[in-house]
Write a structure and sequence with these properties.
The complex is a heterodimer of chains A (155) and B (622). Chain A has 155 residues and is an alpha+beta fold. Chain A is built from seven helices and four strands. Chain A folds into two domains: 62 residues; 77 residues, Glutaredoxin (3-Layer(aba) Sandwich). Chain A has a four-stranded mixed sheet with strand order 2-1-3-4, with helices on one face. The mean pLDDT of chain A is 90. Chain B has five domains: 108 residues, Glutaredoxin (3-Layer(aba) Sandwich); 211 residues, Rossmann fold (3-Layer(aba) Sandwich); 84 residues, Ubiquitin-like (UB roll), CATH 3.10.20.600; 90 residues, de novo design (two linked rop proteins); 57 residues, Alpha-Beta Plaits (2-Layer Sandwich). Chain B is globular. Classes of the chains: A alpha+beta (155), B alpha/beta (622). The interface between A and B is large, with 47 and 59 residues. Bound molecules: flavin mononucleotide and FE2/S2 (inorganic) cluster (FES).
């Protein structure tokens, strides 16, 4: 009960930031995601109810955009850039190595909730390619052999 | 700087403010410009700037030498970049340890530090000044140039270099029609992809019925490999705001949006800050500079979908809906955002507007080619020595960009192709390198200008793999609304999977060509219509490579994993064990010192870790 009312309260304060205006749905969901690191089911339901938007419509927005996740995520987010510039410098092998080291598939979270591994299309630092972004920090010139030592930096 | 800026209430007050700023600042005062764009931040950015400030204080030079944190200078390959003005000493690959020496030797001693200077690839000669570095020498940095001089966080910096003077010129004596006419005479074409003339959109929205009218700046920059919009928004956001203000005035709009990718946190932050400062100065809001003109600019963060860069999908997304495009029987300039007349232009297009107003259409239209005027910023990336952002006049040849500005291909490898126009573009082979780069020439070659990504590829890049890469990207990003795109791209990608995995058949090539045509004709929006371009151009220019995959089951570039195997060259291998340790799959067996290792093909995943560590070049791909 208390957990649900906490969700209600958090959502309510986010909605107020946007004057409870339906057209800000995407920005609202972005803030919800920033709060919880993903979009919890209760939060989506709450947004739908409070803004009077059908649940199906909120879900369709939440699943359309790459930025949203419906599953809880790990403590560290690892984004492997798969943009063209990084691709021609071997990004696919970097991702393969990440999957091997973390023992997850791209898009998933490790069992110990340490990492969430995702592919992204260009983070705008193409000169440093191949690029990996961990918790918002850009790491350039990654190579297959640097993957393991890189991951060991995080706990 | 005063803490609370009084609102400026007239054009004269803005000019007075500028004069005041310029009196305080002398153009030959010593300044350390530290690049803090996203690229250079990976090398320490702000930390290095802070170290400079500390060092300056330590020498008692606080207040005399300014440390400026600027936006991207473009030469990202050599980050972190520091320019010492007024001599314009250009330091590259600067690290934290170098800071004290730079201050004592160069700032105080006036001498350049050899080690940090750029070294000519051709002659090995050290080059001291920024203008002489080949990467910059051939560029014409009209739009991008101020990035290296101003702190994007300070509106005063922009005003001091002449910022908002175009806007004040417009407010103090140009009618909206005159503004549109100037843009028409300048020949400004959209920099976001299609190259549509900006003035036609503006005019048509101006004349359209419906209120309010909207102005939108497209900073979605979905093309993977392009980052000029990010760098402009991060490094000089006020130039974009000024362009939008002028556009809004011309169109008769009082509400504008900037749509920025969520993956660009620094650009979002700097844009928010710029809007706030412009408001504080009375450059946004009600009755701007006493002219009676009102304008509000809002920011909308994208949700990370490539298709949302398309005009109608972008507008749907601003309305809080799923970003699906709609057919454009009615143009968005008549019915766009919330079904009202809307002008959407790209970041770079907006940033060109102040320049045109300030210097005049006659001056502007002298730059470039017959039908493509001005400059274009390209991101030069991939297998190229000087990776970074380059601004060049339209009409320059690809060869000049790749070899003179870009410094050629690293490591004695052979040039293979340059891909322009992103996922909608095509691959241009070596024999077309003398093509002058403008909107029409690139389209004639089967590619397009697109947003300006240029991805250079060498002999180790497989063109079939590249075609597959783009198809997979677009299949993933297709919104799924129309069948040709949703189903067609998938089938094409499956065929390319077959070819790259050794199941290719002769008939596949014709099938690819036929499907390309159908999708091109039948898809709803630009995403689908142009999606086959990478396949069509690679088929046209690199058909032999497809044939090698199909007939010989070989990938000549050594990329397609199903068609290659790694081998130890026994004569070269000394059993140093580096590769044995690097292999995470236990595929390489150590056989004793001075004895070649043995690679077990059944365990090998072809990840390439062994080849990467081998110092003796004893591992090859066959
Ligand atoms: C699939 C697709 C993606 C697009 N992505 C972008 C983009 O990221 N940035 C952009 O400025 N234009 C993009 N465009 C082009 C826009 O639809 C639009 O033409 C452009 O923003 C208009 O501005 P301009 O006339 O100044 O170029 C895209 C078009 C399509 C079809
Ligand atoms: S392609 Fe990886 S950062 Fe641009």
């Amino acid at each position: 009960m208390s957990e649900l009312s906490a969700v209600k309260e958090t959502i309510s304060s986010i909605l107020d930031r946007y004057d409870r205006d339906k057209s800000n749905l995407i920005a609202i969901l972005q803030d919800v995601q920033a709060e919880y690191n993903y979009l919890p089911r209760e939060a989506i339901a709450e947004v739908s109810q409070a803004l009077d938007i059908p649940l199906s419509q909120v879900f369709s927005v939440a699943t359309f955009f790459r930025a949203f996740s419906l599953k809880p995520r790990g403590r560290h987010s690892v984004h492997v850039c798969l943009g063209t510039a990084c691709h021609v410098r071997g990004a696919a092998s970097i991702l393969q190595q990440m999957e091997k080291e973390m023992n997850v598939c791209c898009g998933d979270t490790t069992e110990d909730k340490k990492f969430t591994l995702e592919g992204v299309n260009c983070v705008g630092a193409c000169a440093l390619g191949p690029v990996v972004v961990v918790d918002g920090e850009y790491i350039g010139h990654v190579s297959v052999n640097k993957v393991k030592p890189l991951l060991e930096n995080y706990d | 700087m005063n803490d609370k800026q009084q609102k400026l209430t007239s054009v004269a007050e803005l000019e007075k403010k500028r004069q005041g700023l310029n009196k305080q600042r002398s153009s030959d005062a010593p300044m350390i410009a530290v690049c803090c764009g996203t690229g250079c931040q990976a090398y320490g950015g702000k930390k290095i700037a802070d170290a400079f400030k500390e060092e300056i204080e330590k020498h008692g030079l606080g207040g005399k030498v300014e440390v400026k944190t600027t936006g991207c200078h473009g030469f990202c390959e050599r980050g972190l970049l520091v320019v010492i003005r007024p001599q314009n000493y250009f330091y590259q690959r600067v690290r934290l340890e170098d800071v004290p020496e730079i201050v004592s030797e160069t700032v105080i001693g006036g001498k350049p530090i050899e080690r940090l200077l750029y070294e000519s690839l051709a002659t090995g000669e050290k080059i001291a000044s920024e203008e002489e570095v080949p990467f910059y020498k051939k560029q014409v940095r009209l739009v991008f140039g101020d990035n290296g001089y101003i702190d994007p966080y300070e509106i005063d910096d922009y005003i001091a270099v002449g910022g908002y003077s175009a806007f004040s010129k417009v407010l103090s004596g140009m009618t909206p029609e005159q503004v549109i006419d100037e843009v028409r005479k300048a020949g400004l074409r959209g920099r976001g992809g299609g190259g549509f003339p900006a003035d036609i959109k503006w005019q048509s929205s101006r004349e359209a019925h419906g209120e309010p009218k909207y102005i939108i700046c497209n900073c979605d920059e979905g093309d993977p490999g392009a980052f000029m919009d990010r760098s402009l928004m991060e490094g000089n956001p006020h130039a974009i705001l000024e362009g939008m203000m002028i556009g809004a005035y011309a169109v008769g709009s009082s509400i504008a949006y900037i749509y920025i990718r969520n993956e660009y946190p620094l650009a979002v932050k700097n844009a928010y800050r710029a809007i706030q400062q412009a408001k504080d100065y009375g450059l946004l809001g009600k009755n701007i500079l006493g002219s009676g003109f009102d304008l509000e600019i809002k920011i909308n963060r994208g949700g990370g979908a490539f298709v949302c860069g398309e005009s109608t999908a972008l507008m749907a997304s601003i309305e809080g809906k799923v970003g699906e495009p709609r057919p454009k029987y009615i143009h968005t300039s008549h019915k766009g955002l919330y079904n009202k007349p809307t002008v959407l232009n790209n970041v770079e297009t907006w940033a060109n507007v102040p320049l045109i107003i300030n210097k005049g259409a006659d001056w502007y239209s002298k730059i470039g080619t017959e039908n493509s005027k001005g400059t274009k910023i390209f991101s030069l990336v991939g297998k190229i020595n000087h990776t970074g952002l380059v601004e060049v006049p339209m009409g320059i040849t690809l060869r000049e960009i790749v070899y003179e500005i870009g410094g050629g291909i690293p490591g004695d490898k052979k040039f293979k192709a340059v891909q322009t126009g992103g996922p909608s573009g095509g691959c241009i082979p070596e024999n077309l390198l003398d093509l002058p780069v403008d909107f029409d020439e690139l389209t004639n070659a089967g590619s397009m200008m697109g947003s300006g990504a240029m991805i250079v590829m060498d002999e180790e890049n497989c063109m079939v793999d590249i075609a597959r890469y783009f198809l997979e990207f677009l299949e993933d990003e297709s919104c799924g609304k129309c069948v040709p795109c949703r189903e067609g791209l998938r089938r094409m990608r499956e065929i390319l999977d077959d070819i790259t995995q050794g199941r290719g058949e002769e008939s596949h090539l014709e099938m690819l060509e036929e499907m390309s045509e159908v999708i091109n004709d039948g898809a709803l929006c630009g995403l689908g219509q142009t999606a086959p371009n990478p396949v069509m151009t690679t088929l046209k220019y690199f058909r032999d490579e497809y044939k090698a995959h199909i007939q010989d089951k070989k990938c000549p570039a050594g990329v397609c994993k199903s068609l290659i195997t790694y081998h130890i060259i026994e004569e070269k291998c000394t059993g140093c064990k580096l590769c044995v340790n690097a292999c995470s799959y236990g595929a390489i067996e150590f056989m004793g010192k001075k004895t070649p290792v043995v690679l077990h093909q059944s365990e090998c995943t072809k990840c390439g870790a062994c080849k990467e560590v081998c110092k003796l070049k004893a591992i090859e791909i066959r």
